Each structure stands twice: as structure tokens, then as C-alpha cells.
Amino acid sequence: MSLALDIRCSGEGGFKLRLKSDIPGEGVTAIYGPSGSGKSTLLDCIAGLRQPDSGEIYFGGQCWFAADRNTPPWHRRIGYVFQDARLFPHLSVAGNLDYARRRARGSPPMAQAQLYQTLGLSKLLPHLPATLSAGQKQRVAIGRALLGAPRLLLLDEPLANLDQQASAECLGLLQQIASELELPMIYVSHDIEEVSQLADHLLLLDGGELQDEGSLLALCSRLDSRLAHEEQAAALLQGSIQAQDDTFSLTEINVEGETLYVNHLQQPVGSARRLRIPARDVSICRSRPEDSSILNILPVTVEEIETCRGARLLLRLRLGEQHLLARITRKSADRLALQVGDSVFAQIKSVALLSEAGDQP
């Protein structure tokens, strides 16, 4: 049940969105790009709030837009969470939620009582939106979107106006919803670290055009991807907890048969974790250091070396079936005489443990 897009849409100031893509009908797809790249325009076209100039939109084989058809928003069964919540100010939280429930064209993906408990809404029901914090408003907006029984959930930078704690709480709730419900989600953001914690699939937009798309994990480690050339470039690794080192308050995570140490986690052995490793924090050694303060040293194979004339270059390093990135100086690469296929060791200065549903913010 994919979302098939082939659209052209004009905007203000001569802006044009031109996009063709088949978005997976499962998991979380992130639309990532700078401001003005067309992310919100794309969501509005999918939702039916904006009519493209031409093209087609199909969801699950059902035509939503074509030359002779434009299905109205209320028939598309889409939930939409905006950056600014957009709650009805004259209705209480209960009224906002009931408005969506009474107009639902199907069964919500989660029972109402369970939804209230998951989102922490029960104590907020009698309150008006003006009395809520930004984080509380977004939780209500998410609840309202889900009670509308959507077949697809759209989220347009829902964390942009939240403080760090509220952002972490809402992100954890979205992760829980994504893991528990069979509900495809499209998530817009210009923050790659935020995207890294939630998305399975990624579309890169710039100037109204699709620059690249694919699995998030694969795109983050490809040298030909724009992500690899951003200052905050980082590879993502999937691993699982293999042991707890209570003596030093560390947790051991197994990635492709190798061990990475992170700060202690209150989770059972076997729990899956996603790790983000910045390219700038990875250095290369020909032999394994025996007297280094760095704990995380992995045997890797040089799979690709960036060709450049600047001071720094990127390496793509294979670790089993996964990949790391390393940003080193061109002089260092020359001094080590690095070649594709070389077996080397990656010293990892820092490992960012990405948050998961259930983590404490």
C-alpha cells in the first residue's frame, strides 16, 4: 500500500515543486531538506489542502489526484499534525478530541482509552488550549489526528516549537506509536538528528526537487549522498544490548559481532538500539592501539575513498553488513597510504545513543 507521487506544483515567488516517488506504505518516511525546499508544499498536496498543477497521487491503488480527479481532504482519511498544533481555541481538549472522533470515517488505530493513557491526555480533558504548554498542545494534536481514524499520518515539523524536554517526550511518543501501530507516517523536518531517531525511509528535497531517496541507514553512509557532506554527517548503526558492565556503569552493544560501549542503559539484554556515529569522531589506525583511552575500536574495511582536492576527505568503512563514515585529512590518508580494500581499525571518539520509545528524556 504505497503512496505513489508524480506531481508538479507552483508556489510563491516562482517556486516549483517537481517530484516523482513511491513512498513505502509502512513505517516512517522522513522528508528532509532546508527551509524553502518544498517539504510543507508536498505534505499539503498529499493531504489535498493544495492542488498540484499537474500529475497524479495514488495511495494504496486509490487515485487521490489526477487530471480528472481531486479527492477532497475529508475523503482521503489523513491525519495531519501541524507545527503549531492548530487546536480549536473555543473547545476544551475533550471537545477537540471528540470533534475528530465523531467525524472519523473508520475505526481509530488505537482505542480511545488506550490513546488517552499513551499520550497522557486524561488530566487535560477539561482544559482549554490556551492553558496548555506547547508540548501538551502537540500531544492533543497527535491524539486528535489519530482519533480521526487515518490511513496515513502526516507530521509537519511537530517538534519545532517545543523545548528540549517536551521535544524528547513527544519524540518518544511518536516512536511508540510508530512501533505499535500499523500506520504509515510521513514526517517533515530540517533536523537530521531528529530524523535519525524516527525514520526508516528518507526523501531528500532541495529547491523543490527530489535529490535522493532510500533507506535512512543506507543514505546516511553513502558518499554520494548530500547527508555525507553536511558538517554533522554521521552513520547510523543497528545493534542490540549484549551485556551490562555494572562495575564501570557501561552497557555493551553488539554490532555485527563487535562490541561498542555506551553509558549504562536500564534495558534487558537483547534490546535493539540505534547508534549515531559522527564522521568527525572516527579516526583510522593501521594496527589496533593497545594503550588508547578510546574504548570503541572496531576492525573495518575501507570500501570507498572520496576523491577531493580539499584538506579533508571522507572514507566509507564496512563493518559486516553495515557502514561507518570517517572524515580525516587528506594528508592523513596519504601518510597511511590508504587504499580501497585495506583492513584497518576505526577509533570512535563518541557514540550517540539515539533515543527509543520508553527512554527517560
UniProtKB/TrEMBL annotation:
Keywords: ATP-binding, Cell inner membrane, Cell membrane, Membrane, Molybdenum, Nucleotide-binding, Translocase, Transport. SMART domains: AAA (SM00382). One of its GO terms (molecular function) is ATP binding. InterPro entries: AAA+_ATPase, ABC_transporter-like_ATP-bd, ABC_transporter-like_CS, Mo/tungstate-bd_C_term_dom, ModC_ABC_ATP-bd, Molybdenum_import_ModC, Mop_domain, P-loop_NTPase. Residues 1-232 form the ABC transporter domain. Residues 291-357 form the Mop domain. GO terms for cellular component: membrane. NCBIfam families: modC_ABC. This is Molybdenum ABC transporter ATP-binding protein. It comes from Seongchinamella unica.
